[in-house]
Amino acid sequence: MKLLLKNTRTLTENGEFEACDVLIVENMVQTISSFIEIEDVDRIIDCQERLLVPGFIDVHIHLREPGGEHKETIKTGTKAAARGGFTTVCAMPNTNPVPDKLETVQQLLERIKNDALVRVLPYAAITKGLKGEELTNIDQLSKLDIFGFTDDGVGIQAADAMYRAMQLAAQNGKAIVAHCEDNSIVYGGVVHDGAVSKRLDLPGIPSLSESVQIARDVLLAEATGCHYHVCHVSTKESVRVIRDAKKAGIKVTAEVTPHHLLLSEDAIEQDDANFKMNPPLRSKEDQDALLEGLLEGTIDFIATDHAPHSSDEKAQGMLHAPFGIVGLETAFPLLYTYLVKQNKITLKQLVDWLTIKPASIFGLPYGKLAANVVADLTLIDVEREMNIDKHTFYSKGKNTPFHNWNVTGVPVLTICDGEIVYEEDFHV
């Protein structure tokens, strides 16, 4: 198939807009030029000067399948990803069964092959059943088409287990990706241990529960030479530990979510489980430190931690509802509206944090807009205004704290591996 995108705008290295046409042949970008005229083409799309960027990459999402199909499926989750402009997503292993052995990983890969609309790179578990005890066969699983190893959702409590996992992962050239949480100092918390926990009389999760485990793990990463990646950083102390570890030459990288960049605990006005996520929304001081860490390079990129749940589950209130919010369909518009348009970051920085930065850190051949690379592309209408309506989500999960927020900047066309996987009728 030959697809010609006419009248697009791309971003230069300096962050300037540049008009161009893009020719896609089969699954590759063949030509990028100021003007392309060709007769032998299957389809021409007039992009009307909308912004064309590499397809977004999200290394941290939950698709729930198998075992949690009432929350999300591979099909619905990847439809949501495509609508949000994401062409590569990495699925966490807290499913039932857990992808912790050869058979379950192979079965998962087959489901992905059959049902995914965008590229899904699954994780395998670090420990059997995500129980933090017996290690999976990291040598064997590394030979499969997996992205890395994680027990996301629970921290690895024993230093010995994390140490041995890092040794094996390093030998196989795989990353250890960690949800950092010391259970001994979580104290049954459901929100940040701060002003809101006191006001709503809810048990709080101390910041220390995250940062002390990161501090332990960066030393283990130094000892093993493992690539250690920290999920959803949420505290100023965590940023400091990661900053110091990078200065020491330790191979540590980190991500931050849109919700931790845009919200603090102050956004929680009442007992509303749509604001319940793990790690929780922290103080305004923590929120500011996360943006500073991102801008200085201590935090490497943005990932959504898309975590769908059913409405019934989230209706149980803070004490009993599961942790997590959805994020794939709202990430770019929220970040563009409330960070780029408020001059806190640049558009080029935002695009890089969603594309080339995660790709380069994890050695993926995606996240680029250039000739002779895979055609993963997202077209964005940066002028389009939209009211976020959870009832229109493609995801099964409607659990968002951003319902009814007004945003600008909407993905209108998503191309993955040369195929159109999402398209709005923007020719109006």
From TrEMBL:
Keyword annotations of the record: Hydrolase, Metal-binding, Pyrimidine biosynthesis, Zinc
Binding positions (Zn(2+) 2): 152, 179, 232
Enzyme Commission number: 3.5.2.3
Reaction(s) the record says it catalyses: (S)-dihydroorotate + H2O = N-carbamoyl-L-aspartate + H(+)
Record's keyword annotation contains Nucleotide-binding: no
EC main group: hydrolase
Gene3D superfamilies associated with the record: Metal-dependent hydrolases, Urease, subunit C, domain 1
InterPro entries reported for this sequence: DHOase, DHOase/Allantoinase_Hydrolase, DHOase_cat, Dihydroorotase_CS, Metal-dep_hydrolase_composite, Metal_Hydrolase
Binding note for cofactor: Binds 2 Zn(2+) ions per subunit.
Pathway: Pyrimidine metabolism; UMP biosynthesis via de novo pathway; (S)-dihydroorotate from bicarbonate: step 3/3
Residues noted as binding substrate in the record, renumbered to the chain: 62-64, 94, 278, 309, 323-324
Residues annotated as binding Zn(2+) 1: 60, 62, 152, 305
Necessary cofactors: Zn(2+)
Keyword Cell wall biogenesis/degradation applies: no
UniProt-listed Pfam families: DHOase (PF12890)
Superkingdom of origin: Bacteria
CDD domains found in the cross-reference section: DHOase_IIa (cd01317)
Active site per the UniProt annotation: 305
Any one GO MF annotation of this record: dihydroorotase activity
Biological role: Catalyzes the reversible cyclization of carbamoyl aspartate to dihydroorotate.
Similarity remark: Belongs to the metallo-dependent hydrolases superfamily. DHOase family. Class I DHOase subfamily.
Name the record gives this protein: Dihydroorotase
Organism encoding this protein: Ornithinibacillus xuwenensis
